[in-house]
Amino acid sequence: MTWLEGLQKALQYMEEHLDEKLETSEIAKQACLSSFHFQRTFSVLTDTTVGEYIRRRRLSCAGQELMNKELRVLDAALKYGYESPEAFTKAFRKQHGSTPSDIRNGKGKLTIYNPFSIQILLKGAEPMNVKIVEMEGFQAIGKKRSFSYKEGENFREIPRFWSEANGDGSTEALAAWNNGQIRGILGICTDTNSENKDMNYWIAAASTKEAQQGYDTITIPPSKWAIFAVHGAMPDSMQQTWKKIYGEWFPTSGYMQVASPQLEVYGEGNPHSANYYSEIWIPVERP
């Protein structure tokens, strides 16, 4: 199964099970990805989370069924996983701007979110600079925090994490300890076993030294890496490159991402400069 087929299968699975309890781990299995990698891929491609997409689709379906008088309000609430009509009405009004009763009585309008479909973008004007490199495993020293994808917590809190690390001298210390295979400060994205959080994020540096107090170590396994050059000011250039990787490169490359840490590598210089250079490292394999 190709990368494209896997994502489409996951979308179809969600659509067919909207009126059942959906676990992200089970959805990710349809795409042959870990829960972490599927959620990250999904959020980069769609600018929304898996949970938010499911919520929008459920409320869209509920609205259409209420408009056609196929369900009572209570039945719609129960069908689409709400514990009470009150909770359902609150979520329904937030999306549609009308109450379920209004819609069933022929009043108000619906805001419908149609199912996503994955399409290949054929673009040649701006080629991607990528190389495939095999590398032995290595150790990195850094600081770690856990984040959730819910309500965009990761998008809000990771930049704050960087601001804190830059302000308290952590990135300067890491730069001094950076004697490993990769030069630069690393943003490392990994899976987490926490029930409440979806990802671990490290601000780190490749180093053979022992971790000082307040820092931990992480071992990056041997991997075949797809390394993408990123040119331009942060954070826009990094975000746009992630989108091109998932929207353009993976669908046509023949590679699949591996359930292993992903790296953002930040070099020296002014990160807000139009000439700033950084990299994205993704572990890959041929299916």
UniProtKB/TrEMBL annotation:
Superkingdom of the source? Answer: Bacteria
Q: Which InterPro entries match?
A: AraC_E-bd, Cass2, Homeodomain-like_sf, HTH_AraC, MarA-like, Reg_factor_effector_dom_sf, Tscrpt_reg_AraC-type_HTH
Annotated GO MF terms: DNA-binding transcription factor activity; sequence-specific DNA binding
Q: Per its UniProt record, what Pfam families does this chain match?
A: Cass2, HTH_18
Domain HTH araC/xylS-type stretches: 8-106
Q: Which SUPFAM superfamilies match?
A: Homeodomain-like (SSF46689), Probable bacterial effector-binding domain (SSF55136)
Q: Which UniProt keywords apply?
A: DNA-binding, Transcription, Transcription regulation
Q: Protein name, please?
A: AraC family transcriptional regulator
